[in-house]
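# nightly structure sweep
# worker-07 picked up a monomer target from the shared queue
# config: single-sequence mode, recycle default, output format = C-alpha cells
# input follows
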Amino acid sequence: MARLYEYRLSMDSGVILRGRRVTERRVTLPSCARGAAVASGKSRRCPDGVESLAQAGAQAALALFGWVHGSDRMMETATLFPSVAFGLSMAEMELARRLPAAGVFTPARYCAVTLRLRCHQRTGSRKSKSGGDPAQESEQINRLLTTHPALVLRLDANRAWTLSQARVFSAHLRPDLHSRIAFIEEPCQQPQDSLNFAAESHLPLAWDETLQAAVSQPDFQLEQLGKAAAIVVKPTLIGSVQRCLLLIQAARQSGMQAVLSSSLESSLGLTQIARLSHWLLPDAVPGLDTLHCFQAQLECPWPGSSLPVQQLSAQRLVGIWE
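# output follows
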C-alpha cells in the first residue's frame, strides 16, 4: 500500500526566504507500507528547487503507483526532481530497515552575528549567518569568539559580498581567531571570487549554493568547483540517498569535509537527515537547527522540542494505491 499526503505547517512570522516572508510550508510526502513496516519520505518543493508542488506530487504519485504494481524500485531516481528522489529513496530505506534509529540530534546551533543567540549553549559548533556590513560582522565575530573561548563558528554569508567586501571582512577578523572558523560558506556573489578570497585570507571555504546548482548537470564532477575545505550537502536539493552518498565519497577522496544540512524540513525530515548523518557522517555535526522556524512538528517529534506535533494521518490525503 502507498499513500501520498500533502501537509501544511505554519511558519514563524519572522521567516524570510529569498527576500520573501514565508508563512507556511506546503509539502507532498509519500508513505509506503509492506506488511507491518510503514515508511515515509519527503517529496516536496524546495526553496531553491525548480519543481512546483504539483510537479513534485505528480512524480511521486507515478512512482508510488509503479511500486505498488510490482516495480522493484519506485522509479529510476536519475529521472526525478532531487526532492522527489530523496523522499522516495528514504522511504525505501525505511522499509528495508537500512536507516539506523540513532541520529545526530545535537546539530550545529544557529546564531546571528548580531549576537542574538537562539540558545544558551556556548561551546561546540555553531553556525552564524553573516553577510551584512563586512567590517561590523568581523568585529562582532571577534567579540563572540573572545567571549566564548570554546566556540567554533561555521559562517554563512549567502553570497552577499563582492570580493572587495569580503577582503574588508578578513582584514578586520583577528588572525589569532582564524583557527576557530570551521569554514565560511560562499562569501562572494561569484564562485571564482570566493575561491580567490579563500586563497588570500586562508579562511576555509565551503560550497553550498554553487554545489546545489552544479550537481544536477550531466557528468558533474566535484573537482570542477575548485578546491574547498568543505561541502554542504542538502539532501532534498541533491537527490537520492545514493546520490548523497556518492557526493560524500567524492568529497572524502578530494580531501574535503562533508556536512549534511537542512532546507526547511519538518521535524520528520529533520529526524531522517539526523539519522542519515549518523550513518554516513558519524564524526560531523549536521546543520539542522531550523525547527524554530515552524509553529508545529510533524509525526516525529524532535528530541527536546516543546512544539505541538501534528499527525500525518490528519493531513490531506492526495492519493492511495493498493
